[in-house]
Amino acid sequence: MVAWAKAAGADAVDAIYVEGTQLSVSQRLGAREQLERSEGRDLGLRAFVGTRQAIVSSTDLEAGALKELAGRAVAMARAVPEDPVCGLAPAEMLARQWPDLDLDDGAEASVEQLADWCARAEDAARAVAGVTNSEGASASWGRTRVALAASNGFAGDYSRGGYSLSCSVLAGDGTGMERDYDWTSGIYVDQLEAPEKIGRTAGEKAVRRLNPRRMKSTKAPVVYDQRVASSMLGHLAGAINGRAIARKTSFLLDRLGQRIFKPGLRIIDDPHRKRESGSRPFDGEGLPTRRWNIVDDGTLTTWVLDLASARQLDLAPTGHGSRGVSGPPGPSTSNLYLEAGSASVDELIADIDNGLYITELIGFGVNGVTGDYSRGAAGFWIENGKLAWPVSGMTVAGNLKDMFLNLTPANDLVFKGAVNAPTVRIDGMTIAGE
Fold first, then answer.
1. N or C: the chain end with fewer CB closer than 10 Å?
2. What pTM value is reported for the model?
3. pLDDT tens digits for 338-390?
4. Which sequence spans correspond to the domains of the chain?
């Protein structure tokens, strides 16, 4: 494809190939509900004529069709407006070697294996006293192969596999029913938690949420459970994304090199963690990847940049380019996580006379330009340093600038996906209820 596009008159070209296989099984109330298998192959081509670019993609991999597609891409590139920041990386910036990140165990899950996980998880959940219904259990396996080649001399490929299991059940009756869930995932099977544990935890969490109250509005500390604490990192990632900075649409626009979290706090993006879902040996533009301390000792150290946003800001790219077959690259983090603190969760809430422990967030009331934050929440009320009773129908509000500065992490960090955080406490938030 690269050679054909060059022959058709392109000044520069890159092509990406993605091949994926997915298998998923789900059951509800002991009966199989779904069995799906999908296989796909997609190829995307980006052609440059001067500072103009065009992108085409195809699932038809017959040589004649692809050669015709390459010619069309070049013709499209000649017709589109100029983009002064588009273009491939110079050869001296390219990744030439990269680590083996062990992202594929080489195995393929069977329907029987996934169905067994579902059955064991749902049976364990339904065995919990108080569980009255089930939304089911789902298990999946998948493998994706990615190859990237470009006219600047880059060529590389890697494969990523993975397994996941989730279970969701309900407790109580009538209008007093409550739902909760648990899940696990990993590149290798031995990274998964036992299905029985996933089911039991889902059931116990659902039962604990029965008979929630709605508390009066107040201003108090809020503790985000490990399951929802990673949302704070999601808001940070959006605010330091190179595109948002170049467009001047980030509440952290003027904070590079300044303290935005408490001293001692560190947030890391590490694409070289072995057997982790966000790892990648090179980025979507063929640039080398490396670990970044995005926040170090509370100070914001870098933006997350691909080539285009780096050129807009007159900065060096950070190896965060990510892309699919049908669009240009964009900045994206890899394995983003907040380092664990020193206090246990019990110690984190021990001095809270009244506060909110959040296990579920609802809606997305976040303004990325101003940092204003308002989201629905459910969880447990904290009284005298202990979780006292379930609550729902609450809203928590603040501004992310203040929330970041008042955030304290616990010591319970666990890696379960591409964005991870321990339980965190944020003081001084507005809690709206009755």
1. C
2. 0.95
3. 999 999 999 999 999 999 999 999 988 899 999 999 999 999 999 999 999 99
4. 2-208, 212-434
Per residue, what are the HEC states of the chain? CHHHHHHCCCCEEEEEEEEEEEEEEEEECCEEEEEEEEEEEEEEEEEEECCEEEEEEECCCCHHHHHHHHHHHHHHHHHCCCCCCCCCCCHHHCCCCCCCCCCCCCCCCCHHHHHHHHHHHHHHHHCCCCEEEEEEEEEEEEEEEEEEEECCCCEEEEEEEEEEEEEEEEECCHHHCEEEEEEEEECCHHHCCCHHHHHHHHHHHHHHCCCCECCCCEEEEEEECHHHHHHHHHHHHHHCEHHHHHCCCCCCCCCCCCECCCCCCCEEECCCCCCCCCCCCECCCCCECCCEEEEECCEECCCECCHHHHHHHCCCCCCCEECCCCCCCEECCCCEEECCCCECHHHHHCCCCEEEEEEEEEEEEECCCCCEEEEEEEEEEEECCEEEEEEEEEEEEEEHHHHHHCEEEECCCCCCCCEECCCEEEEEEEEECC
